[in-house]
Amino acid sequence: MLVYSSDTILKPLSGFESLKIELIDFILAKRDIMELKKETTKSSKKNQEMKEDLPLNKLKIYLSQEYPKGSWFTKSDLKFVADINAYCIAQGYADVYEVLEVLVSEKFLTKDYRFGKYLYEINSSKTTEKDNKIVEKSKNNLRNQKTQSNEIVAHDIKKKKNVAQVSRNQKSVSNEIVAHDFKKKKQQLQKFAKTLPNASNLPTVPTSGGLFGWFDYNVTGNDLNELTRNIENKWIAQNKELVRVIKEFDTIYETFDELDKGYIQAIIASLKSAEEAARKASKGLDGVKENSRQLEKDQKDIKTIIDSQKIAVKAVLSFKEKLAKIEHILDVDQLFSDVDKLNNELSSFQKEIEQSNQEAKAFVNQKLSLVENTAEKIQSSLQDKITSIITNQASENSDIRKLIHKNTQKTDASLNDLSQKVASNNDEMKSVNQSISVLQQQLKISRIVAVGIFSVLVILMILILSGVLG
Predict the structure, then answer these.
(1) 407, 303 in Cβ contact below 8 A?
(2) What is the pTM for the complete model shown?
(3) What integer pLDDT is reported at residue 14 of this predicted model?
(4) Three-state SS string across 30-78, please?
(5) Which helix (H) or strand (E) holds 233?
(6) Are strands 215-216 and 208-209 parallel, antiparallel or unpaired?
(7) Please, are residues 280 and 197 in contact by the beta-carbon 8 Å criterion?
(8) Do 110 and 67 meet the contact criterion of CB atoms below 8 Å apart?
(9) Could you read off the pLDDT of 314-324 as tens digits, one per residue?
(10) What kind and span of H or E run contains 89?
(11) What keywords does the record list, in alphabetical order (predicted)?
């Protein structure tokens, strides 16, 4: 049976120290929350009373601070002020314009129409002493409110710091107590391990006796009683040592209990906290990676949109430059009718050129055939004359030869003239063909320019309708 000492019985009470610390923290936090609620309620009541008493003071204070006497402002200057718009909605006004008109009707502001818009100014001549007191009182209230709020926040921060410091001190004391108890138990175990029981021997009786020890010794009752008494004392000592060993087992249990409370549980809690922190960090890292991927995708989309817009803007600017260079474009329909008319004229002109080319070819062929026939006739006539002259006037060979030579020269000259005319006709045909090719090239360029202008006009109309250039 285990025997528990008073230290062992009181020791489990130290397990309530952490619960006591948590209870103290909870009570302090609850007290701080209650005080903060009371102060917040008082502040909200003061604000509500100020709003009920002074419905337009907030706007007057804002205007007095932002636009002092002598400075003008417009309605658009107050249109995007979030606090003023929220105040107007809370007071039931349609927008800030209506509030300004109310202040004008109260002669707090003056209104003047200049440069195509209304300008407002604080009316220093009509600002009553009551308004000045109200504005000054509101300013003081706001300053006091900010001061109280700052004091509340500072007081709350100070309380939280004190609570945290107390908690840290209590935890430090608790850790010191646990460490001290564990060290004490460890020293007790070390002392027990070094403490060994004293060795004791049972008494013995002599084996010989009588005269000169020649005879056997007879054991008496006293000897047995002495032996029994020694054995009992030995058993009592052994029992005491056994009780002490069992008590030291209780010390071992308490040592492991302190170790479990002070170190193992803290290690397990730290491991769990580390696992939870690692899980949250991994989850946060996954979220960061996902956000990074989404940002990269959005950046690519934005870059693509910007590039497409740049291309569209460049196309529009180029089209504007082309329009600035062209002075006689009045109507797209007229332009297309002119292009169609030009195409028709080019087609008719091309037909005329082809017809002229055919006529020129026919004329050249006709002239060539005529020249060939004439040459053949002349040659046949000359041959006949030569034959007649040779047969009839053989004696006049020299004169006939001269005449033949002369006629031959004339014939050659005529042939040369005809050849030159044919060459000139060929040159004219080449120039005509070149003119036809130039006109065809101009026709193609005109068609391409017309199609390009039409496409640019269509793109411009689409951009205007889509609101890009609006």
Answers:
(1) no
(2) 0.23
(3) 46
(4) HHHHHHHHHHHHHHHHHHHHHHHHCCCHHHHHHHHHHCCCCCCECCHHH
(5) helix 221-259
(6) antiparallel
(7) no
(8) no
(9) 776 776 676 66
(10) helix 82-90
(11) Coiled coil, Membrane, Transmembrane, Transmembrane helix
